[in-house]
Design a protein that fits this description.
The longest helix is centred in the last third of the chain and has 53 residues, at 228-280. Helix content is 75%, strand content 0%. It is elongated, with a radius of gyration of 29 Å. It contains 12 helices and no strands. It is mostly helical. Mean pLDDT is 80; it is low at 285-290. Helix 5 (75-103) runs parallel beside helix 9 (162-180).
Length: 302
């Protein structure tokens, strides 16, 4: 826990670095532009499709009829838009994470490496192509898990547990790999991710819960749906900051763990060298069949 908390506070301090702040604007601008572009072309048609789909379910219509009877019929008009936003949130989260991993993480790992570990050897155990394939594969698994678990979101406790767990697992997979891709060899990366799997997963889950905070905006009230054009950029900005912090957190923790691993390996090698030397230069008389050592004859004067 101590290395994890130490890395946590270092990551919080590094978030104030001007370079990190400047880097955070690129994913933010790309995500806002993408969100508004998709909303402009597909929002009305998507809401209409969801509304038509909901009308085919008697259970949903019964719930909406109950809202009419208790004087909350105005919620009928915002139910479909709210559902669209809820369904779009996992996609926004995943895209924000991938953009941070692509545009911010390499630069932030470099920043941590230069400032804390300037003499650490870089073994380049993970290339850019391998990193991208690893991230895409992990993302695909996370999206499948989100789709499969969506029916369980209707159970009130599970909606607060399952999405952050899935996002946390994805955060751990992506950022732990990228934090070690440059400095560690492939064998070192696998050893560290295996040894610290529990801690890295816990860090990912905590980051997932931080990333789930903007989702509470849509649960705050149906009146906020009208403010969606303003709140979506705010939510994306929060996602970007959370994942930037998570990337720094993983970088500090992983590189410090790599330094400890190499130090322990070097100590083991140094401990083994004297023993190997002593075995190599041991007395030859110990070996069977070896004649004893005799001093050379001395000549005596006449």
């Amino acid at each position: 826990m101590k290395p994890m908390l130490h890395a946590f506070w270092r990551a919080a301090v590094y978030c104030m670095h001007p370079r990190v702040i400047a880097l955070s604007f690129l994913p933010l601008v790309l995500m806002v532009a993408l969100s508004f572009g998709l909303g402009y072309f597909f929002w009305e048609s998507t809401v209409a499709s969801v509304t038509a789909w909901l009308e085919t379910y008697g259970l949903v219509q019964g719930a909406l009829g109950w809202l009419d009877r208790v004087g909350m019929g105005a919620l009928r008009a915002v139910f479909a838009p709210l559902l669209v936003l809820v369904l779009a949130t996992p996609v926004i989260v995943v895209l924000s994470l991938l953009l941070v991993a692509l545009f911010m993480t390499p630069a932030m790992v470099e920043l941590v490496g230069q400032r804390r570990f300037p003499v650490m050897e870089r073994k380049h155990g993970g290339s850019l192509i391998v990193s991208v394939l690893w991230s895409l594969g992990s993302t695909l698994l996370a999206l499948v898990a989100l789709l499969v678990s969506m029916p369980l979101w209707l159970v009130p406790p599970l909606v607060l547990i399952l999405p952050p767990l899935i996002w946390g697992w994805l955060t751990y997979r992506v950022f732990a790999f990228d934090a070690l891709a440059v400095h560690a060899s492939a064998s070192e990366r696998k050893a560290l991710m295996r040894e610290h799997r529990g801690t890295l997963l816990l860090m990912g889950i905590l980051s997932g819960y931080l990333g789930a905070a903007p989702s509470l905006i849509w649960a705050s009230g149906a009146l906020l749906i009208a403010l969606a054009p303003l709140l979506i950029p705010v939510a994306i900005w929060i996602y970007t900051l959370v994942f930037a912090f998570a990337s720094l957190w993983f970088a500090h923790f992983a590189l410090a763990a790599l330094e400890r691993l190499r130090a322990s390996t070097a100590v083991e090698v140094l401990d083994a060298v004297p023993q190997a030397d002593s075995d190599r230069i041991g007395p030859p008389s110990d070996a069977p069949g070896t004649p004893p050592f005799l001093p050379p004859p001395t000549s005596s004067g006449s």
